[in-house]
Amino acid sequence: xxxxxxxxxxxxxxxxxxxxxxxxxxxxxxxxxxxxxxxxxxxxxxxxxxxxxxxxxxxxxxxxxxxxxxxxxxxxxxxxxxxxxxxxxxxxxxxxxxxxxxxxxxxxxxxxxxxxxxxxxxxxxxxxxxxxxxxxxxxxxxxxxxxxxxxxxxxxxxxxxxxxxxxxxxxxxxxxxxxxxxxxxxxxxxxxxxxxxxxxxxxxxxxxxxxxxxxxxxxxxxxxxxxxxxxxxxxxxxxxxxxxxxxxxxxxxxxxxxxxxxxxxxxxxxxxxxx
Length: 275
Fold this sequence. Notes:
By secondary structure, the protein is an alpha+beta fold. 31% of the residues lie in helices and 27% in strands.
């Protein structure tokens, strides 16, 4: 039985077993990413849900708003991710109603890690990246409610500081904080674009363009990712979602950029450059 550390209630009925295994293996893949820059946090993801070689759905939402200043990108089993996102949203809302303040992003990551820990070693497959903004006085850390002296340490010194936060939480027990995180089968390709183009001085439009290109490059090489790209921007005022874009539009933009480079080389060198 799994108990919520905030309210003390059971998250699942006691007669349910956490060790029930699926009757057949599910191969899945995705591309999700998040990064911090000077104007907040960008979260991006593709929209393809796959089950092995089958495209189960081309229009899945892999970025879920948790509250006004927090969204979560999901990777893993679609059903598992949806369940735990709903449970996390519920617990944070109950905490806010009881305490009249939001739980900090670091406290939220710690809570989610504790909730997932009993399922380590089972077929539960959840990898969530929490992308949010702490407003300082309006949030609090979970360490004041939970004795976490023996758990994996997350420094509470910066938990209540206002500003952008990006934390990865996985069902195998991992809890990592960073400035750029990409998860999923397409993440190695996305990291290649992010590592070459990411800098703190990016403008908002440049950050959107970089995130969109990173997802596009990943979907071009990874068969389990594709179709569309969702983009969220999280600031001190909350999150905003951009209109969903088809990745084929980014493909045509990329072809246009390459054609312009070829034309520029022709103009500078005066030579015929093969296209």
